[in-house]
């Protein structure tokens, strides 16, 4: 009865804002620990799912830190989607915690909020989660958004046929994935965290990913500042607001850069009207982790450019970050 009531409430809440297009089927890949914009990004995704714009197929960590999956699970559970499949890398991968020395949201969120999975080690292999999710979807229908390291995507491309699909990883991506949207790259060239933490994986994915790629570069999220209103006015029981309340005083009370939220917003709603696209090719040098952008109208990648002001986009993102679950926890 409670589940039915929640479904009716959700339908009523979204009736006036029902999207004209079917929801975007999406897999979210995050490093969920070094920075807390990942928390904001997953909140944005759940808000878009509640509005009927997105359908979350899976949430996976590219970071082996044990608290990553519990933090993802906390947010999924808060928004009433504890059934979303969770994954983490099982081979060689980066383990990176937050730099905060005071209250560390990476340990506080699992300690304070309900979740089911106790550690990244307890989660399923991220590659298996990807393969199962992709195999079950129609051709050219899935958007992958990665706001962390490229480890899982490289491992997915290199995976072989198994009980989940007779296709290789590359074949599965080529058949099922509509596009990849990634928070990655320092344009026109330089060092960017998500790339440099596993540069060989980033280089491989940029060279071999078979579907279109949209890149939200460092300079995009750097200018979009959010979090102050979420921390000040967000629900008292929200793990999203709590992450910002714990972290902003240690960084900048005026707000935090929205690198990951920008990528999620574009993955679901597309670039317009906030952004334009410049086509080209991003190459990564594994020897020194640098990336370099070469503009080219026929390039296999595209990077975001601003059309609206960062402040306009920040207002949109902040409102989504403050979204309350339709039915509570």
TrEMBL record:
Question: Which Pfam family, any one of them, does this sequence belong to?
Answer: IU_nuc_hydro
The segment(s) forming the Inosine/uridine-preferring nucleoside hydrolase domain are 26-232
Q: Which UniProt keywords apply?
A: Hydrolase, Signal
Example GO molecular function: hydrolase activity
Q: Which domain of life is it from?
A: Bacteria
Instruction: Indicate whether Hydrolase appears among the record's keywords.
Output: yes
SUPFAM superfamilies linked: Nucleoside hydrolase
Question: Would you indicate the residue range of the signal peptide?
Answer: 1-18
Coiled-coil intervals in this record? none
Question: What PANTHER family does its record include?
Answer: INOSINE_URIDINE-PREFERRING NUCLEOSIDE HYDROLASE DOMAIN-CONTAINING PROTEIN, PTHR43264
The protein in question is named Nucleoside hydrolase
Organism whose genome encodes this protein? Alistipes ihumii AP11
């Amino acid at each position: 009865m409670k589940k039915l009531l929640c479904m009716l409430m959700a339908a009523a809440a979204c009736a006036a804002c029902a999207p004209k297009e079917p929801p975007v089927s999406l897999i979210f890949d995050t490093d969920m620990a070094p920075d807390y914009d990942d928390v904001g990004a997953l909140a944005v995704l759940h808000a878009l799912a509640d509005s009927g714009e997105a359908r979350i197929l899976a949430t996976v960590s590219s970071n082996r830190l044990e608290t990553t999956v519990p933090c993802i699970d906390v947010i999924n559970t808060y928004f009433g989607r504890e059934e979303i499949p969770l994954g983490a890398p099982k081979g060689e991968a980066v383990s990176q915690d937050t730099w905060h020395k005071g209250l560390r949201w990476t340990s506080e969120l699992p300690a304070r909020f309900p979740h089911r999975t106790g550690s990244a080690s307890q989660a399923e292999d991220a590659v298996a989660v990807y393969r199962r999710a992709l195999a079950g979807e129609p051709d050219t229908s899935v958007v992958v958004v990665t706001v962390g390291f490229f480890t899982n995507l490289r491992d997915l491309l290199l995976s072989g046929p198994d009980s989940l699909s007779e296709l290789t990883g590359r074949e599965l991506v080529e058949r099922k994935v509509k596009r990849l949207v990634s928070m990655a790259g320092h344009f026109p060239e330089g060092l960017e965290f998500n790339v440099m933490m596993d540069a060989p994986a980033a280089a491989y994915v940029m060279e071999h990913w078979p579907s279109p790629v949209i890149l939200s570069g460092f300079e995009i999220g750097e200018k979009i500042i959010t979090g102050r209103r979420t921390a000040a006015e967000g629900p008292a029981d929200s793990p999203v607001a709590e992450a910002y309340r714990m972290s902003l005083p240690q960084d900048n009370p005026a707000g935090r850069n929205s690198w990951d939220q920008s990528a999620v917003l574009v993955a679901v709603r597309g670039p317009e009207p906030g952004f334009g696209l410049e086509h080209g090719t991003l190459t990564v040098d594994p020897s020194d982790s640098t990336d370099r952008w070469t503009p080219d109208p026929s390039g296999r990648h595209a990077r975001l450019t601003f059309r609206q002001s960062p402040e306009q986009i920040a207002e949109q993102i902040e409102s989504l970050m403050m979204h309350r679950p339709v039915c509570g926890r």
